[in-house]
Design brief:
1 helix, mainly beta, 48% strand, 6% helix
Length: 174
């Protein structure tokens, strides 16, 4: 039978039922589609982080930097051309010389910056120094050749001091 004749026969029928020959037919009854897996401490399931071998731990800080205006920035690190940097935690300590508060504290690269939440933690007895602590978990990515920068802006015009800490890991660039 040729293909065109089979097409003509199929086109002339309103419905077609195809079945396996009786000697090859069998019933299938699925009662539990979930495959039970039992894991014990004696026979644990192996789990591994596929990126762990490629991660190179990273941690650094800026040296306590004085600033005399209402804002300051400090370059923390420039990422090597063959790597990505993933920042997982950032923290900072800031001493502002006036009691007017902080306007912004952030880390970032290019046009992407993460704001650090900060809290006033104290002041000197004479009221000339006001201390702030900032800390956050993050997932900030810095590309090959980009520079990670710490930025602080206060509402004071007399400036103060700041110090930033960051940690994370390098990954190889593709």
């Amino acid at each position: 039978m040729t293909r065109s004749l089979l097409t003509l026969i199929l086109a002339g029928t309103s419905s077609l039922a195809l079945a396996a020959p009786p000697d090859r037919a069998f019933d299938v009854n699925v009662t539990n589609p979930v495959l039970p897996v039992e894991v014990s401490n004696a026979d644990p399931l192996p789990v591994r982080d596929v990126d762990a071998a490629a991660r190179e731990p990273f941690q650094t800080q800026t040296i306590s930097t004085a600033f005399s205006s209402s804002s300051s920035s400090a370059d923390i690190v420039t990422v090597p051309a063959d790597k990505f940097l993933v920042i997982e935690h950032a923290s900072a300590w800031i001493n502002s010389s006036e009691d007017s508060g902080l306007a912004s504290v952030s880390i970032g690269s290019g046009f992407q910056f993460d704001q650090l939440p900060c809290f006033r933690t104290g002041q000197t007895g004479n009221g000339l120094n006001h201390f702030y602590s900032c800390s956050m978990q993050t997932r900030h990515y810095v590309g090959p050749g980009e520079t990670l920068t710490f930025f602080v802006a206060t509402a004071a015009s007399d400036g103060g001091f700041h110090r930033a800490f960051v940690s994370g890991y390098y990954l190889p660039a593709p």
